[in-house]
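Researcher: Go.
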Amino acid sequence: MSDATPSVRRGTGSRRRLPRGVRLRLTLLYTALFVAGGAALLGITYGLVSNSLDAGTAGVTVRTVPSQALLRQCKEQVTRQHAAATAGKPSAKESPTSSVACEKAFVAGSLAGRSAQREHTLNELLEWSLVGLAGLTLVSAGLGWVMAGRVLRPVRDITEAARRASERHLGERINLRGPEDELKELADTFDDMLERLDLAFTSQRQFVANASHELRTPLTTMRTAIDVVLAKPNPTTQQLEATSEKVRRSIDRAEHIIDALLTLAVSNRGTGAVESLDLATAAEDALDALGERARRSGLRVDTELARAEVTGSRVLLERLVGNLVENAVVHNVEHGWVRVRAGTNDGHAYLEVANSGPVVSEEELPHLFEPFRRADARIGSSGVGLGLSIVESVGEAHGARVNAQASPGGGLVVSVTMPSPGP
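Model: Structure:
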C-alpha cells in the first residue's frame, strides 16, 4: 500500500506539470511575440510622427531666444500702430533696426513654441503608447493562456488515453474530432497503434488459452501412461515399448498443436513480408507431401491447376494451401477422392479443394472455422481442429474470401479467392 500511493502521486504530478509547462511556454512565447510586434509598431509610429512634426521647421534653426525687454518693446510698437490705425492718424515711423528685430523675435518665438509643442506631443505619444502596450500585453497573455489551453486539449486527451492504455483498456480510442491537422494525425496514429496492440494482446491471450486447453490432453495421456508403467513392480520390455510409443504419439500431437497455434497467432497479426506466390505450385507441393498418405487410403486425386499468382506472406499462404489439402486427405473415407483446382478469374486468383468424406450438416458447417471445432464424424481423426481456423485467419490477413460448402454425398468444398497482382 505504501508503494502504490507515491506512484499515484507521481503520476498525478507529472500529468499536471507537463501540460502546464507547455502551456506556460506557449503563453510566454505568444506574449513575447506580441510585445516584439507592439514595440516595433510603436517605434515606427513614433518615427513617422516625429518626422511629420519636424517637416514644419525644416531649414530653420533657433540660435537665441528673444529677451523679454525686446518682446515688450515689440508689443508696445504693435499696440501703437494698431491704435493709430484705429484713430485714423498716421503712425510714428519706427527705425528699420527696430522692425527687423521685432520680426526676428516673432519668428524665433514662433519656432520656440512649435518646438515645445512637438516635444510635448512626442512625450504624450510615447507615454500613452507604452501604457497601451503594457495593458494589451496583459490582455494578450491572458488570451494566450486560454488559446494555449485549447490547442493543448487534444494533447491532454492523447496523454490520458496513453495513461489508460493497458492490457485491460486497449479497446479505448481517442476518436479526436476536428480539422485534419498535425494533432488529428497524431491522435489517429495513436488510435492505430492501440488497435495493433489490442490485436497483439488478444492474439496472445487466445494463444495462451488455446494452448493451455489443448495441451492438457496429450500431457495427461503421457502422465497416465508413465504412471501406469511406474506402478508395475517389474514392467516388461513390451510394456515399456508400448508406453514409449504412446508418449511419442502424444509428443507429436502436442508439437502439432503448438505449431498450429503459432501459425494462427502470426496470421492474426498480419501478413508481414510481402512476396509473390503461385497457388497452383503450392498446391502441387502440398499434394506431393501427402501423396503417400493418399495412396495408403486409396484416394483418387484429380487436379486442374493453372497459374494463380498472389502476393503476401509466403509462409502463411503455403500453410493455407497445405491445410486445405491436408484436411481433404485426412478427413476423408477409404477409396474416396480429392479434387484440387487453381487459376484466375476476373483479376482474382482462386483455389478450390473438394473431397469426399463424412456428411456435414448445414448447422455444423459454420462451426468448422472455429478453433478446435470439428464435425461429430471427425472427432476420432488425428487433427487438432485448427486447420480451417488457420485458413480463415490467413485469408482475412490477405484480403481473401473463404467459402465452404457441404457436398450432398459427404465431404466439403472449400474455395479461397483473393486479388491477383495482375501482369
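Model: The chain has a mean pLDDT of 76.
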